[in-house]
Write a structure and sequence with these properties.
Elements (H helix, E strand, L loop, with lengths): L1 H9 L4 H6 L2 H47 L4 H11 L10 H13 L3 H10 L2 H11 L3 H14 L3 H9 L2 H4 L4 E2 L1 H5 L1 H8 L6 E2 L11 H10 L1 H8 L3 E12 L2 E11 L4 E7 L6 H17 L6 E9 L4 H7 L7 E7 L10 H5 L8 H18 L9
Parallel strand pairs: 2-7, 5-6, 6-7
Antiparallel strand pairs: 1-7, 3-4, 4-5
Helix pairs in contact: 3-5, 3-6, 7-8, 7-9, 13-14
Length: 379
């Protein structure tokens, strides 16, 4: 046994094994992997861009011919049948998808704008946005920019639209303008919301603030998702020693884009005037004890179940530290109703007519899936 082990130890490495053990080889391999990944990413983006541009051009031609020749919408179903009869070369041209193409072309008639949109998001994202904001360019563009910035998946984009992020982003009561200056105030305001929607909380009646804190930390990933991109969890019940006394922060985060610590104080009940003074002290202490290098002035978020707007504004009026007062709620998104004009267009005694077209489309697409004909994936 001893002789055998010595023989193994004395066996020289093959030349390739000697090379692969070097730092230079590992560095080369890592560079190649990065280059391959970047190339693959560019290829996927190029395909998505071409697909969106193709769909836009098809939608534009259909729209132009319908307007020129006064064709009805039935022709779109026939176009779908004839294109799909061509087989694999025309996959993804369901009747429903052709309507998406036409809506896309109607909303964005300028090819230059479409080229920008297609370079940012794929067709599945565009479908979600068309469903939600097919007649509102401003909101469409806002969600495009936000999706690109935070690299949202299609599924996550749907969630944020359902939660009406555009209404909640930057809606908190703050003193950011006075405490940070206009440019930094805009950046800081972008990362706060009102309300924060926390449907994952399992709080019972009579829960205390410590119960709320425990529930948030238990599902910290979900809470970070609701806080938004850039937040990193730094600690719970974080102790600060000031003048020989210990002070405890409910939750401490760091925001990598803002380069600031973010202190979150949790309240069950209405905002009280003294909350602002307490948060001001906490932020001063964090800056004194934790802030380093190029860290910017810390920001505080007071999360309550309600607030009096006037009281909150006056409470922070001459407070120098940047503070936001926001609310939190357990409920999920409110049901989004169809436009009023659509509701009014449906006869009161025949409500089923409003759903007939949608049901027919769903059944048609289900048949397509069963027989193996591809439709555009939503995710």
């Amino acid at each position: 046994m001893y002789v055998s082990m010595m023989a193994d130890l004395s066996t020289p490495r093959r030349p390739d094994e000697q090379v692969t053990a070097t730092v230079e080889y590992r560095d080369l391999l890592q560079r190649l992997r990065i280059r391959i990944g970047e190339a693959q990413g560019r290829a996927v983006r190029a395909v998505n861009t071409e697909l969106v541009m193709l769909y836009w051009s098809i939608g534009r031609e259909i729209l132009e011919e319908q307007e020129r020749l006064n064709w009805g919408d039935d022709v779109i179903g026939r176009i779908s049948q004839d294109l799909r009869a061509d087989g694999g070369s025309a996959r993804g041209f369901s009747r429903r998808n052709l309507f998406y193409m036409r809506s896309f072309a109607r909303l964005w008639p300028d090819q230059a704008i479409v080229q920008t949109l297609s370079a940012q998001l794929g067709w599945s994202h565009q479908q979600v946005l068309l469903d939600a904001f097919g007649d509102d360019r401003a909101l469409y563009e806002w969600y495009v920019a936000t999706s690109v910035e935070h690299r949202w998946s299609v599924r996550f984009l749907k969630v944020q639209i359902d939660l009406r992020l555009h209404e909640r982003a930057g809606a908190a009561t703050t003193n950011f303008d006075a405490a940070l200056g206009s440019e930094e105030a805009v950046r800081a305001l972008e990362v706060v919301k009102d309300p924060y929607v926390l449907p994952f909380l399992g709080l019972e009646e009579g829960a205390k603030e410590r119960d709320l804190e425990q529930a948030l930390v238990h599902d910290i990933q979900k809470f970070l998702t609701e806080l938004g991109w850039g937040f990193a969890f730094y600690g719970r019940q974080y102790p600060l020693l000031v003048g020989g006394q210990e002070f405890i922060l409910d939750l401490l985060f760091y925001h990598h884009t803002l380069r600031r610590f973010v202190v979150i104080e949790l309240k069950i009940g209405e905002f009280q005037v003294e909350h602002a003074g307490k948060m001001n002290f906490y932020l001063n202490a964090v800056d004194e004890l934790l802030r380093q290098g190029d860290d910017q002035e810390s920001v505080g978020i007071i999360l309550t179940t309600g607030r009096n707007e006037t009281v909150a504004q006056l409470a922070m009026h001459r407070v120098q530290a940047p503070i936001a007062v926001s609310t939190w709620q357990k409920g999920g998104p409110q049901q989004i109703l169809p436009p009023a004009e659509l509701i009014d267009a449906v006869p009161a005694d025949q409500p089923e007519l409003a759903q007939l077209e949608e049901v027919r489309d769903r059944l048609a697409e289900r048949v397509e899936r069963i027989v193996g004909e591809a439709v555009v994936a939503e995710d």
